[in-house]
Amino acid sequence: MIDIRQLRYFLAIADAPSISAAAQTIGVAQPSLSQHVQRMEEELGVKLMDRSPRGTLLTQEGHVFVEHARRICDSLDRCVADMRELGGVVRGRVGFGMPPSCSMVMSVPLAETVRLELPEVRLRAAEAMSGYLKTWIEDGTVDIGFLYDLTDVGQLRGTHVMDEELFFYSAPDAWPLDTPPGAPVPLADLQPLDMILTSNGLRNTIESYCGKHGIKLKVVVEMDAMTQIKELVARGSGYTIFAPVAAQDYVRRGELLRAPIVAPKMMRPVYLVTNPARVATRACRAVEQLTLDVARELVKRGIWEASLV
């Protein structure tokens, strides 16, 4: 039967240019390592790698086997770490993924709270667009993350934390409508305007509302870079739609003007997401609970403009 040692040996080979290089890395004789691979291939009934004088190359079956081996070894490592932590101080590393808008309001207070209440936990926060975060949560690059849409997330588990209202944004000196600047704007009135939007995440929510009401926006620029979108709109190069937290810095400085969108009012859910297929350590569970506490406190204090659910 294949054991955990053989899985770790195979992962070492997969990560090295050759069996001889892997043997030197893990301190095992090359003939012995080759025999381990041969026995696994016989046990599985498939060829896991092709060997040549230039090194080794994983077969298709080998690539699939590597994915399973990594999950198994990672799960065992997490199990060992969790058992060692039981009854003691919560410690360990936790990867956290946030979209740029969440990160603006959440990353600093969360980092400060984790450092104060979980001093032995090392939080690694990463910022990315929602599409990347979904993949990172699935493959274990991060343990926890905020997402705005649970469509096509498969086995991922999401906690509905809050709902954000979406607003229309314009440069103060480039208000495009006949209504007073900042007055509520019917979504249909945005159709002739030059819109600058992201290509995923928030865009999916906007397109969903537009589709349900027979509205088609004129998107002249797609850009998955929140700061650059705000800068373009502030220069009068177009208009955009954001949640308040994403643009509060520009609004505060008077560089952007916001207006509520009506007919319909547009809302976006915010979920805290984990992957139940991966064993969560005590550190992960503790950070997840702290995240919920911090997020709800920010909403109650009006720092994160949203409605708790």
UniProtKB/TrEMBL annotation:
It comes from Salipiger aestuarii. Keywords: Activator, DNA-binding, Transcription, Transcription regulation. Belongs to the LysR transcriptional regulatory family. This is LysR family nitrogen assimilation transcriptional regulator. PANTHER family: NITROGEN ASSIMILATION REGULATORY PROTEIN NAC, TRANSCRIPTIONAL REGULATORY PROTEIN NAC-RELATED. It holds the Pfam family HTH_1. One of its GO terms (biological process) is regulation of DNA-templated transcription initiation. InterPro entries: LysR_HTH_N, LysR_subst-bd, WH-like_DNA-bd_sf, WH_DNA-bd_sf. The keyword Glycoprotein does not apply. GO terms for molecular function: DNA binding; DNA-binding transcription factor activity. Residues 2-59 form the HTH lysR-type domain.
